[in-house]
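Good morning,

Attaching, inline, the backbone tokens for the sequence recovery test we're adding to the shared suite. The designed sequence is right after.
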């Protein structure tokens, strides 16, 4: 398959006077802080991949400019597998939203190398420049240090060299790193099990959990990817549940069951602990998770996502004709097919 990335708005200015593009990945909602010192969270639902992205606004405002610092978590490129089209409409919508709110993006965070959607992290971090409203030169693209293990596992499968991986991320973090958004501290929490690189980000009484747990009526993440572990996932969930009962867990995806019409993006620790369908008996969680994972099909966008996301959201290197092509490893059931 061959495709080209549509980047007609890549050099656009995000000044307050610009013509703004409405976010295409609606519905989005604003979740106001319970306490004055807490951040404001804007959630965006990317319907085609059931993915939540977040714009998290710290506190307080910059007294001189009136600008509020924000981070963007788990952004998405728009990818149509049938046509090979990759566009930036949803990512442009996030940036336009930030411009309309007088927000300054200070960092672009990834919870992990996603296997079900293409990240827009690299595109967003390189599309915001000094001189625009943002006033931060290419806010850093950040992911957990475990991404190096994920890259080692998957780069050879997609014909990617060490050189192809250089510059994919600006900062690899562990729990010792001190990050901030405005005056709010961001605590990085290593949450392996779904993937080795998985990080959660706690900002006040909000934890952005990626794919560790989902809404109570959906359950928990799978643990059967290379480098995954149901035992480690169980330990990571226990670690999350140690937070205060009112802490909100903002999830990476929602797959609403028939009993619930609309997607939701968070549940509290208390609700998760007492109502999550996969956590009601943690004693046999690992065994039930292993059985469940054997029944699951591979994610629809597994191969496109991984080869793009281990490079921070960059497309595969172009061939001699300037066209990027996805590599799809095949499993042949007979030597006669090779």
């Amino acid at each position: 398959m061959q495709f080209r990335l549509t980047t007609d708005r890549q050099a656009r200015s995000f000044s307050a006077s610009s013509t703004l593009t409405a976010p295409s990945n609606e519905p989005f909602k604003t979740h106001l802080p319970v306490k004055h010192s807490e951040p404001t969270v804007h959630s965006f639902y990317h319907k085609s991949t059931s993915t939540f992205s977040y714009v998290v606004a710290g506190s307080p405002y910059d007294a001189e400019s009136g600008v509020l610092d924000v981070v963007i978590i788990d952004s998405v490129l728009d990818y149509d597998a049938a046509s090979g089209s990759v566009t930036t409409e949803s990512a442009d919508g996030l940036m336009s939203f930030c411009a309309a709110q007088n927000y300054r993006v200070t960092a672009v965070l990834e919870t992990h190398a996603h296997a079900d959607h293409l990240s827009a992290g690299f595109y967003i971090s390189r599309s915001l420049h000094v001189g625009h409203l943002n006033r931060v030169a290419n806010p850093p693209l950040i992911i957990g240090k475990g991404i190096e293990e994920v890259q080692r596992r998957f780069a050879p499968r997609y014909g990617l060299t060490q050189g192809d991986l250089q510059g994919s991320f600006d900062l690899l973090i562990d729990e010792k790193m001190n990050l901030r958004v405005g005056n709010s501290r961001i605590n990085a929490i290593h949450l392996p099990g779904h993937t080795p690189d998985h990080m959660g980000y706690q900002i006040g009484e909000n934890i952005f959990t990626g794919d560790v747990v989902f809404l109570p009526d959906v359950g928990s993440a799978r643990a059967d990817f290379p480098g995954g572990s149901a035992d480690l996932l169980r330990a990571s969930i226990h670690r999350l549940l140690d937070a205060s009962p009112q802490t909100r867990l903002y999830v990476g995806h929602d797959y609403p069951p028939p009993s619930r019409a609309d997607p939701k993006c968070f549940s509290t620790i208390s609700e998760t602990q007492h109502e999550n369908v996969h956590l009601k008996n943690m004693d046999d969680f690992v065994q039930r998770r292993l059985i469940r994972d054997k029944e699951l099909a591979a994610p629809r966008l597994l191969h496109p996502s991984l080869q793009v996301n281990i490079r921070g959201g960059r497309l595969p290197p172009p061939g001699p004709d300037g066209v990027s092509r996805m590599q799809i490893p095949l499993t042949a059931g007979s030597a006669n097919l090779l």
